[in-house]
Each structure stands twice: as structure tokens, then as C-alpha cells.
Write a structure and sequence with these properties.
This protein has about 250 residues and is an all-alpha fold. It has one domain (about 50-250): Penicillin binding protein transpeptidase fold (Orthogonal Bundle). The protein is about 55% helix and about 0% strand. The protein has a two-stranded antiparallel sheet.
């Protein structure tokens, strides 16, 4: 009998904890449907690492170039318009590839990346992955696709690279500084508005196709590959081909 009451008490507490988590997470997601996230754990982590606040300037969905939206969809999630948060075809292909190859491939959608970056922390664990699934389901159910893409484009990391302090523009790259003491002033870059200003000295609303593809090309490795790396050049070409081929068919 004592065991029964102990089990019942434990079950009640577990139920209360789950109910509290579900309620709070729902309120959190609903709030961010209307309010812009003030920061993320990743942004704060980078700010602490760099010793300075991140470059970030929030811009509304209609203030971001359609070229940038299309480039990101082409590079990160071509089925974004149609899926409900998870691209099962991409997941199946990734599993098949990872079985055969030592070089692992991911299949995270824009929705999953948004859920992870806004609500969770860095790292890999089954707990974090499970929470990523939960928050992905919530934002797909409670946000519009436009809101998901808007938030994503404002909180993604876009540099600078860890091993250099260079600033790119449309035609060349110029050393920001050669003084090691000044290197502490380099800031982590988050969001397409800050990236557009940093790399091209212009607003995200005026990015052309090539500039948008350049930014999209470094999304998979914002700190380990610059725009002139072999990976970024190859990925940029892929993004531009996709933009020319699919265009408005995959746009929202």
C-alpha cells in the first residue's frame, strides 16, 4: 500500500512538471509570434566568447530582400514551403549517406534551426534534440511560415571567421586591422541586416542575387569558412543554380 501511494505521489509530481513545461513553452512560443526575441543563448555565448556585444539589427520580413529569402531557402531547406517542420525525404537521404560515409550530413529544416536557435542551447544530446522536435512542432502550429523565416533570418550566425579578421565587400576583401589589440573589437554577427552592412555596406532590403547567395553560402559554417573558401564558393554556385531554376516556385 505504501508503495502504491509513493508511486501515485511521484506520478502526480511528474504530471505537474510536464504540464508546467507544456504550458510555459506554449506561452513562450505564442509570445514570440508577436514579439521579437530580444536575444538567444547562442548570441549571449558568442558575446561572452568575443568579449563584446553581437552585431544584430532586427528587420521586419518585408524589409528583407526577396533574393535573400530565396537564397536561404535554396541553400538550407528547399521544401520549406511545403513541409510541416520536418523534411522526411531529406532525413532518409541523410541516414543513407551517413551509413555509407564518415562525413556526416544533417537534414535540419529552417523550422528546426529556428526552434533550436531561439529556444535552446548549443550542443548535441538526445534531450536537446527532443526539445528541438517539440518546439519545431509548436512554431509550425502557431507561427506562419513568414514568421518562421523572419525570425530565422534575424537570429542566424553569419561570422566573422575565427581564424581571420577580414571584411568582404562586393569586389574585394580588406583587412579590418593588423593590430592584435584591436582584434578584441571584432563582433560576432547575427542576422542578415548586420551581415549585409558588415560585408556589403548596404541594407538587407537591397541585397542582389549574388550577395544573397554569398551570405547563404556561409550559413553551414559561419565561423569556419569565409566567403572565399572552397566550400563557400561551391555552395554559392549551388544556391545560384537553384535560384535560377526554381525561383518563385519555392518562395512563400
Amino acid at each position: 500500500m505504501l508503495t502504491f501511494f509513493l508511486f501515485r505521489s511521484v506520478f502526480k509530481w511528474i504530471f505537474r512538471i510536464i504540464l508546467a513545461f507544456v504550458s510555459l513553452s506554449l506561452l513562450w512560443v505564442v509570445a514570440y509570434r508577436f514579439l521579437n526575441p530580444p536575444t538567444t543563448l547562442l548570441i549571449q555565448s558568442r558575446a561572452s566568447e568575443y568579449g563584446t556585444a553581437a552585431k544584430q539589427e532586427w528587420v521586419d520580413y518585408d524589409q528583407i530582400s526577396d533574393n535573400m529569402k530565396l537564397a536561404v531557402i535554396c541553400g538550407e531547406d528547399q521544401r520549406f514551403k511545403d513541409h510541416m517542420g520536418f523534411d522526411f525525404k531529406a532525413i532518409e537521404k541523410a541516414i543513407e549517406h551517413n551509413i555509407k560515409s564518415d562525413k556526416k550530413r544533417g537534414a535540419s529544416t529552417i523550422s528546426q534551426q529556428t526552434a533550436k536557435n531561439v529556444f535552446l542551447w548549443e550542443g548535441r544530446s538526445w534531450v536537446r534534440k527532443g526539445l528541438e522536435v517539440w518546439f519545431t512542432i509548436l512554431i509550425e502550429a502557431l507561427w506562419s511560415k513568414e514568421r518562421i523565416l523572419e525570425v530565422y533570418l534575424n537570429i542566424i550566425e553569419l561570422g566573422p571567421t575565427e581564424d581571420s579578421f577580414y571584411k568582404y565587400n562586393q569586389t574585394d576583401r580588406t583587412s579590418v586591422n593588423e593590430n592584435a589589440e584591436e582584434s578584441e573589437k571584432i563582433q560576432p554577427i547575427f542576422g542578415v541586416e548586420a551581415a549585409a552592412q558588415y560585408y556589403f555596406n548596404k541594407s538587407a532590403s537591397t541585397l542582389n542575387k549574388t550577395q544573397s547567395a554569398k551570405l547563404a553560402s556561409i550559413l553551414p559554417c559561419p565561423r569556419s569558412c569565409g566567403m572565399n573558401s572552397a566550400f563557400a564558393i561551391h555552395h554559392r554556385a549551388f544556391v545560384l543554380r537553384c535560384m535560377r531554376r526554381w525561383g518563385k516556385k519555392i518562395m512563400l
